[in-house]
Amino acid sequence: MNKQTKTLLIVALVAIIAVIYIYPRWNSGTNSGPAAPSGPPAGATELPVTVITLKKETLKNQLNVTGTILPNESVSLRPEVSGLVTRITFKEGQYVSKGTPLLYLNDNDLQAQYQKLEYTQKLFESQENRQKQLLAREAISQEEYDIVLNQYNTTLSDLKLVEAQIQKTIVRAPFNGVLGLRQVSEGSVIGSNDIIATVVSMDPIKIEFSIPERYANMVEVGAPVFFSSEATKDEAEGKVYAFEPQIDAATRTLKLRAQSSNKGGKFLPGMFVKIRFVLGEIDDALMVPAESVIPELQGYKVFVVGKDQKAEERSVEIGTRTESQVQITKGLEEGDMVLTSGVLQARPGSPLKITNTN
Q: Buried b vs exposed e over 282-307: b needs ≥16 C-beta within 10 Å?
């Protein structure tokens, strides 16, 4: 190939490259017109969505927390004095009434002292009667009568002391409740540190739980509490009857106690329970599903069905949140139709096709 032919080939290649890069730009410049309008193009496909029509409803402002079942009363039975167990009169798991004798300790020595004092008391009582008659006839002095009267009264006091000591050898139920497992047997010698059994009052029961400190000012005595356990799926209801007067500095929570009936003994002390604690109620709240609310830098927004059934954007302010809903405090009105699906695909002015209305 000669030099002239090579030159012609190079020129041809340069011309072809120039046409490839320059022609499209020139062509687009000559065909350009006014800018296309923003928003969905004319004849855009309708976006299928589901909506909810807003209406005012009652909102229960509540917390979901966990707690523990406590007995109404519970005590570990111990004797007041040491002694030999001579008789046990209860059965494990038995329901007992307040004052029922449950266990007896050996009181032979105390019974002997009591019998001796009874004889002495009868002697001084008869002496006091005779001295009183002699004093009335002025046969003895007042001092002689006072000495015998003092001996009689002292004996009466000694009798009451021994009687109280005898009562301490009998262990009685302190309140109505159910007895637990027995820890002692007849013939054993026990002291005041030995546990005989536990007695528990389970109706009513108490529910203990804690809430974050930011809700402390919303707590009121009598507020309803709904709770359930793994053993009983159905919710039971109780009412707050007391709470701590201070915040726990370690956990920054406020401890509360509620009380509930426990007929049938469905709830046992120590059970773990899930609690819905109702802080208050709002009668005219506007609620939307949580998926309808879109967070923004400046706050929150939702899409509603606007004129000509097109999407319309609304800035809103939110209030209380529940597990699935959000309260709208500003930006929407009753009767507005809020998008619950297709929210991420919607744009202002997008034509909508409503497939379902709740």
A: beebbbbbeebbeeeeeebbbbbbbe
Percent of residues, the chain, with pLDDT higher than 70: 88
Could you read off the pLDDT of 26-45 as tens digits, one per residue? 444 444 444 444 455 555 68
35-70 burial: b if 16+ Cβ within 10 Å, else e? eeeeebeeeeeebebebbebeeeebebbeebebebb
Among the residue ranges 53-62, 79-88, 145-154, 175-184, the one predicted with the least confidence is 53-62
The mean pLDDT value of the chain amounts to 86
- The pTM of this model reads 0.65
Measured between alpha carbons, how far is residue 220 from residues 70, 279, 333 in Å? Answer: 20, 8, 32
34 preceded by a cis bond (ω within 30 of 0): no
- Run of H or E including 179: strand 177-179
- Which amino acid is present at 273? V
Q: What is residue 4's three-state secondary structure? A: helix
**Residue 279 has which token pair?**
């802080």
Q: Rounded distance, CA 225 to CA 258, Å?
A: 7
How far apart CA 51 and CA 356 sit, in angstroms, is 6
Ramachandran class of 89: left when φ > 0, alpha when ψ lies in -120 to 50, beta otherwise? alpha
Distance CA 12, CA 149 (A): 150
Cβ neighbours of 186 (radius 10 Å): 11
